[in-house]
Design brief:
With 274 residues, this protein is an alpha/beta fold. It has two domains: 92 residues, no CATH class; 158 residues, Nucleotidyltransferase, domain 5. Helix content is 50%, strand content 11%. A five-stranded mixed β-sheet has the order 3-2-1-4-5, sandwiched between helices. Helix 9 links the parallel strand 4 and strand 5. Helix 1 crosses helix 14 and helix 12 packs antiparallel against helix 13. The radius of gyration is 21 Å and the shape is elongated. The two termini are 27 Å apart.
Amino acid sequence: MPTFDAWGDRVLYALPTERTMIKRTFLLLPGIGQVKERRLWEAGVLSWEEFSERRHVEGISDHRKEDLDRELGTAMELWDRGRTDYFTRLLPSGQHWRMYRRLREATAYLDIETDGLGPGAVITMVSVHRDGKTVTLTRGIDLDAGGLERALAGTKMLVTFNGSTFDLPMIEREFPFIVPRVPHYDLRHACPKVGLRGGLKQVEVLLGHRRPQEVEYVTGEEAVYLWHLWQRKGSENALRLLRRYNQEDARNLEPLAAIVYDRLADMLAGGCGR
């Protein structure tokens, strides 16, 4: 079996084009929710082109179809122009994964650590993985608004694991307006759709990936302990292990994002929707 990273690379470059993925959802259209979208799929209308080419679509009046045809015409034009901000605004966040292949080269894989989970918790470390390099910022050393802004400069998509409810709100609270308003592919919500359940480390194990031995069994709770060990006793080894753990969290999001994208694409190709 190829390595986790090699598998992710192999999968990504064999994927169908990104346009197929974005053009298989109708949720950007006014008045079209998940139920109506599924009815379109069941009626054999699987893409924007197929919708536009039909003179009549069951359940949609001819007048309304004309309006929706215009909406889709605008969407096609803006997609061809690379205006992903339009789709970020109109699509539910759970559909942003459809833009991943197009934006992959400008995607940042982000993970944070904190000193606990209570209401007073603060960010202790942030890792941003991009272009094969990982930048790690540490509280009290180099974690500040400027450093985070530089690490994210030019980002056109964010990939996280549970970033919607944890990482990004924490960053927004401590560093307002630093995180770019770009499509966000949250693997915590995408993984269960393709049968990968559990936390990030559990999903990695399901896919046959083992982390380096020194951080293989480090958990989120132990990461908090490592931070306190550094803060209270100045343990350089604890800080080094925490950095390595945080970096693994961020780096492993890249192959996982490709693998999950591939499986979601397969579901679409098989007519299974999302």
